[in-house]
């Protein structure tokens, strides 16, 4: 299985955090280690590797910290919060992955790149924010923030009010040329964290916006632009299921894009959960990708061999 | 002045922040723009560019935010705080520098790399922390933190108590191979922010430590290891002076390492201010560097031509 072409692996933000600890602490390292052992094996097989990652819980922490300190120092914009999590999670991944490679006696350079992802200023997502971010507020606190900060907030069934932000469609990976250079050199690149820092173009300038780009969509775009045949989505379940959670639940091992689209149209995949992953996978396959592998940490190498997980191919 | 070899430019953290605003806001962009216009000109002249930067005020913000939120979510280690500032400042620099290059019609890829810098676990700095970080505390608050968190704290003449952390000597740039690849490809690399995330080696693992590496020393090490003939330190004063602040103050335009070392030994350069910069410059020149240029934003291009600033040469 050597030299099987470029590969992009998208890791869920939840698999890189230990809710009981700071993210730089030893037990966070232990959580990340499971993922990094598989990433090291994949890099060894494929000769290079691009890792992307989510940042849901981590950007939530940034928003809480900014909110708690805003009577002392100014808040950062949400674009800056995403950049901070790219620094924090990139550091964790490159350190732990470096440890694993060192133990294996493999010398593969690793880097984490701050990545901007361009979206369209007229993306319909900006008119209809849907992505909940940050802490929960009471109705009174929410009313205050909607008035004073202009936030859009929605009630989350019984749990309180949360800010919602736009989730625009990724159009361009700003740092693509650099990522490409490093992959060409056979290195490991950690990038597009949290779906990338969302930016829009204003003439000759680019500017950060308060939004969250879906990390699987951004990763699919990156995989396409890098000409990677294989795109892996690491998530909380070992396979994609039809009739998920029902008595006739069935795992999908190998399906075509056409077959899984049919299942999606029949409503098998939950909104805000598996459905956006399937949509990202279909987008990648429509733009020339060869296969998408969806599985969970611990099963990724087996899934790449077709022995676990779900593999979706173009035809 | 085309193709004059590799160049490393170290930017002060104070020239990348507007104390009145969040760091992602427009007025922070305006502050950074002055620096980035010069960096673009330098990249165009030299064909590639490595930018390093300080993070003093920014890491102070991170420490305040972590402290304010620690009743809700766990604090990150100081290594993680430095990584966050590399994300935040790297994003700002790559965005604004990208705007400037776009306006000039120059297409040079830019990236910001999360950078770990290895220090020795037995560095004497760990036994004698001297670098003040983060907010000021009252004597009572300081006593509480020294007891509950094991911090070492010192009184700062009349302004209150601050935590002090070790400032160990940088020994190895962990991500050197990647930085080298990108420089070789003629790109602009932003790295080693805040002197790098301080790490120590423990057998086959590396681990973050609560310390701050002097950014000029880390930048000098990086410049040496990249084989750059030229190392630029951008700071708050346009030139290095002898008898600074006195009636016979005199700017140094061109000096040798030997001459400036004599001035240093005579006590002309302030501890914690110009002296560490001169020491970093001397280290770079002793390890094969050709020249160090010290000047302030707005004067860097002139200084590289010998028309402003202070140029120190090996002989």
Helix content of chain A: 25-40%
How widely separated are the two ends of chain A? 21 Å
Radius of gyration of chain A: 19 Å
What's the CATH class label of the largest domain in chain A?
A: Alpha Beta
Number of domains of chain A: 2
Largest sheet of chain A: 8 strands, mixed
The CATH architecture name of the largest domain in chain A reads 3-Layer(aba) Sandwich
Mean pLDDT of chain A: 93
Helix/strand structural class of chain A: alpha/beta
Reading side by side through the largest sheet of chain A, how are the strands ordered?
Answer: 3-9-2-1-12-16-17-15
The total count of strands of chain A amounts to: 17
> What overall form of chain A do the CA principal axes indicate?
globular
The run of helices and strands of chain A is EHEHHEEEHEEEHEEEHEEEEHHEHE
């Amino acid at each position: 299985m050597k030299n099987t072409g470029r590969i992009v692996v998208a890791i869920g933000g939840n698999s890189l955090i230990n809710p009981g600890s700071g993210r730089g602490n030893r037990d966070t390292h232990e959580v990340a280690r499971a993922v990094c052992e598989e990433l090291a094996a994949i890099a060894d097989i494929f000769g290079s590797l691009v890792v992307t990652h989510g940042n849901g819980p981590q950007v939530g922490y940034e928003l809480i910290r900014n909110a708690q300190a805003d009577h002392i120092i100014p808040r950062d914009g949400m674009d800056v919060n995403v950049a901070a999590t790219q620094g924090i999670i990139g550091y964790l991944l490159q350190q732990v992955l470096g440890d694993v490679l060192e133990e294996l006696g493999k010398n593969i350079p690793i880097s984490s790149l701050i990545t901007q992802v361009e979206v369209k200023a007229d993306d319909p997502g900006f008119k209809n924010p849907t992505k909940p971010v940050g802490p929960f507020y009471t109705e009174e606190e929410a009313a205050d923030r909607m008035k004073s900060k202009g936030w859009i907030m929605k009630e989350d069934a019984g749990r309180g009010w949360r800010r919602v932000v736009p989730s625009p469609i990724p159009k361009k990976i700003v740092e693509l040329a650099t990522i490409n250079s490093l992959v060409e050199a056979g290195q490991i690149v950690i990038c597009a964290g949290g779906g990338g820092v969302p930016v829009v173009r204003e003439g000759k300038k680019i500017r950060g916006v308060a939004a969250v780009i879906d990390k699987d969509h951004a990763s699919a775009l990156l995989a396409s632009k890098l000409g990677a045949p294989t795109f892996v989505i690491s998530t909380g379940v070992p396979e994609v299921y039809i009739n998920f959670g029902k008595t006739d639940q069935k795992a999908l091992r190998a399906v075509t894009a056409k077959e899984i689209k049919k299942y999606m149209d029949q409503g098998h995949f939950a909104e805000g959960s598996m459905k956006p992953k399937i949509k990202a996978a279909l987008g990648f396959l429509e733009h020339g990708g060869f296969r998408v592998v969806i599985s969970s940490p611990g099963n990724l190498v087996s899934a790449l061999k077709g022995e676990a997980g779900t593999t979706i191919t173009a035809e």
